[in-house]
Amino acid sequence: MPIPTPVAQAARGFAMGTADIVPGVSGGTVALVLGIYERLVRNIHTGAQALRALVTGNVDGFRTTLRDVEWIWLVSLLGGVLLAIAALSSVLEGLLHDHPIRMAALFFGLVVGSLTIAWRMIRSVGATELGAIAGVAVVLFLVLGLKSDTEVAEGTAEIVTEAWWVFFLSGALAICAMILPGISGSFILVLIGMYTEVLGAINDRDVVSLGALAAGCVVGLALFSSVLTWALDHHHDLVIAAMVGLMLGSLRVLWPWPGGTNTTDLAAPSGDVAVPVLLALVGAAVVVAVELVAVRTDHDPVHIADDVPA
User: Which residues contact residue 41 at a Cβ distance below 8 angstroms, ignoring those fewer than 6 apart?
Assistant: First the structure.
């Protein structure tokens, strides 16, 4: 398999970061489409093992395990994610605000196209996998409906009122959502009422709250990557089936009508219909095109992770 260049990995990270900005879409979805999801999880898991060795005083184990991380690959990917968030955050937020239905339709098509790739990653589809898809999709669909608005109302005070341990738990939960296909960490923060708290901590430069949030992200990512790595090794098809269910359930947020990604309420298509439908088809076509390019220039994205040692 040709080794992807840092620039190619940064481009993939850029795509992941772009997705993380949009409610209902996550970088995990893009990682699945690009065929790097399992490789990403394994690298995070290896980093978590190194961190565990350091915490327990095993310095030699820390150094040895740290060398197993694909640093160039991982740092290039992370650089692309951060670049996308910095460069496109305001642009995408503006488009989502000014053209909510059309933008929702575009991302709806992207996720639908992604579903075909995720489906192909299931090596053997049986009753258990179908049940997991349906069960996870229904549960997420209902959970997303608990809060009709995906955005914080204008004028809401951005202040810190919660204890540091709440920030810690919020960070651990949000980072897990970011690595899973189907739902963004920012939407999780909105769902649990912590989005304005985090913004308030940033605005006030609350080192304690932000430190607790960051620590929660590190701990959550370390624990979750370990569980996810084990699950992929021992129950691969069931895990991928659950991810397909997550992506299906997340379509509730991306359904264009009545208000695009601004609400989880659902309505029949009306008013602006033709252009959103066309954009949805374009979104699905883009995913298929990306997959074809990945197959020709790198490796079949459905099987790329099989070549990465556990």
Answer: 179, 225, 228, 229, 232
pLDDT at 274 over 90: yes
8 Å CB contact between 162 and 194: yes
| Tens-place pLDDT, residues 163-202 | 889 999 998 888 887 777 767 777 777 777 787 788 788 8
Q: What are the C-alpha distances in Å from 259 to residues 145, 160, 191?
A: 14, 30, 18
Averaged pLDDT score across all residues of the chain: 81
| HEC sequence for 208-243 | HHHHHHHHHHHHHHHHHHHHHHHHHHHCHHHHHHHH
- Concatenated DSSP letters for 274-306? HHHHHHHHHHHHHHHHHHHHHHHHT--TTTGGG
> Domain count of the chain?
1
d(CA 123, CA 240): 9
| Category of 271 on φ-ψ map: left (φ > 0), alpha (ψ -120 to 50) or beta | left
Main-chain phi, psi angles of 5, to 5 degrees: -75, 155
Neighbours of 123 (CB within 10 A): 11
Domain that holds residue 286: 6-307
Q: Does a structural domain hold residue 54?
A: yes
Query: Each residue of 280-300: pLDDT tens digit?
Result: 999 888 887 877 776 665 544
Alpha carbon 12 to its chain's center: 13
Helices 6-21 and 27-34 pack at an angle, to 10 degrees, of 140
Task: Report whether pLDDT(152) > 70.
Answer: no
Q: Is 1 within a domain? A: no
Does residue 291 belong to any structural domain of this protein?
Answer: yes
